[in-house]
Write a structure and sequence with these properties.
Number of helices: 13
Structural class: alpha/beta
Number of strands: 4
Helix content: 40-55%
CATH class: Alpha Beta
Oligomer: single chain
Distance between the termini: 56 Å
CATH superfamily: HUPs
CATH architecture: 3-Layer(aba) Sandwich
CATH topology: Rossmann fold
């Protein structure tokens, strides 16, 4: 049984487009930068932005560490009539490797792959914000609600953005929207991955699927059901999913600050 309510893709698209238009207008900014990774989230964000801004006002970047990680990138950009000068197909390998070469633990061979992945994610964001600065643009985020609740993001890396079109949608709802928007089949069917190391997948790291996680997160955070109640519904990984979400809650609370005292 699917406990998470299905979205109406047409209405949701209209709602998001309205939000994007209002935000760009309010900020007096006409340009956007989108990092296209090859995944469904960034593709969905890009397709939504295409409905809001003229192609000459959109800047797209594929910032890869591994070669040929997204061979369709240029075709998607060109199909959207993004001007050649607005397309950044860059390798971050030299930049990341330069940082790693300074790291004593990397030289010793003891720096773990998650920390290396964080460096990659933060390096990508340096490039995106530099492109945004050059072109007076807002950086469009690509985070979904599942990743947000699970804390599956790098602070000041892939979580950094100026505007988030799909953060209110669970991953499985993003799939619904992506199909409606006509995103290429190869992107929709690709295994979700942050591309932070070879053969890395989100669900492989989790030990559970997004389909199950979305049900559990919805029941726990929105319907306020207990883990025990959720398990009884047949969602066996409920404890693991909620434990991961709660252990990463601190990511939503930082930076911790001293509240101003009353004078």
């Amino acid at each position: 049984m699917n406990y998470l309510q299905a979205i109406n893709p047409a209405q949701e698209t209209e709602r998001i487009i309205s939000f994007l238009k209002q935000t760009f207008k309010k900020q007096h900014i006409e340009n956007a930068v989108v990092g296209l990774s090859g995944g469904i989230d960034s593709a969905t964000s890009f397709y939504l932005i295409k409905n809001v801004l003229a192609s000459q006002n959109i800047f797209v970047a594929h910032l890869s560490y591994f070669p040929n990680s997204f061979p369709e990138f240029l075709n998607i950009a060109k199909d959207a009539k993004i001007p050649q000068e607005n397309i950044y197909n860059l390798s971050i390998k030299k930049s990341v490797d330069a940082i790693l070469s300074c790291h004593p633990e990397q030289r010793e061979g003891s720096l773990d792959q998650i920390r290396k992945g964080n460096i990659m994610a933060r390096t990508r964001m340096i490039f995106l914000y530099d492109i945004a600065k050059k072109n007076n643009a807002m950086v469009v985020g690509t985070e979904n609600k599942s990743e947000h609740l699970l804390g599956y993001f790098t602070r000041f890396g892939d979580a950094a953005s100026d505007i988030e079109p799909i953060q209110h949608l669970y991953k499985t709802q993003v799939y619904e929207l992506a199909k409606y928007l006509g995103i290429p089949k190869e992107i929709i069917e690709a295994k979700p991955s942050a591309n932070l190391w070879q053969n890395q997948t989100d669900e492989g790291e989790f030990g559970f699927t997004y389909t199950e996680a979305d049900q559990v997160l919805y029941l726990y955070f929105e319907k306020k059901e207990s883990v025990e109640e959720i398990v009884k519904k047949g969602l066996a990984n409920a404890e693991k999913i909620i434990s991961r979400a709660l252990n990463n809650q601190y990511k939503h609370l930082t930076p911790y600050i001293i509240k101003a005292s009353r004078i």
